[in-house]
Specification:
With about 170 residues, the chain is an alpha+beta fold. The chain has five helices and seven strands; from the N terminus they run H-H-E-E-E-H-H-E-E-H-E-E.
Length: about 170
């Protein structure tokens, strides 16, 4: 899908993930969050533990993210070593109910329309994110219309989202 909503319209497109008290809605999560497994081994970026269930995303993003993963896997020659070189085995997060860094609005992660990979080499504010060196990764997300945080005024090179900012 290439017609992802603008960030200001995510409530209408993905639904409101808040409960009546403004916290995380367990019912919304149950109805909307699914797991997508890449065709390679995935570990958590923070402690190297195996990610067995997959990447947590909104069901509306699942098919697109699977296409991204398949494209990256093909570009890597279905080679785990290449995936590790690129940092795509290091899962930094998907759905997580929280505010934007330094903000008052919900993060796109709250909607399950954002994913992070290899945060150590693509940190928030780093003006030279490592993923710039791997156009196959960038192209796979771009073909599906995902926005890369590495292009932002304050870069967030680990981050992709299925929501536009322009």
């Amino acid at each position: 899908m290439s017609n992802w909503p603008h960030q200001s319209k995510v409530d209408e497109f993905y639904g409101d993930p808040r409960d009546d008290d403004g916290g995380s809605s367990a019912q919304w999560e149950k109805e909307n969050i699914v797991y997508v497994n890449p065709p390679w081994k995935l570990v958590t970026a923070w402690d190297g533990r195996s990610v067995t269930k997959g990447v947590r995303v909104h069901r509306k993003c699942a098919e697109s993210l699977k296409k991204v993963f398949d494209s990256i896997w093909t570009a890597a020659g279905k080679n785990e070593h290449k995936i590790r070189e690129w940092g795509m085995h290091l899962y930094g997060g998907g759905h997580s109910f929280r505010l934007m860094k330094g903000g008052t609005r919900l993060s796109m992660h709250s909607y399950g329309c954002a994913v992070d990979f290899d945060p150590a080499r693509n940190g928030f504010g780093d003006t030279t994110p490592n993923f710039e060196n791997y156009p196959d990764v960038l192209d796979a997300f771009e073909k599906e219309g995902w926005t890369w945080g590495g292009n932002w005024k304050k870069p967030d090179g680990m981050h992709w989202q299925a929501a536009r900012i322009k």
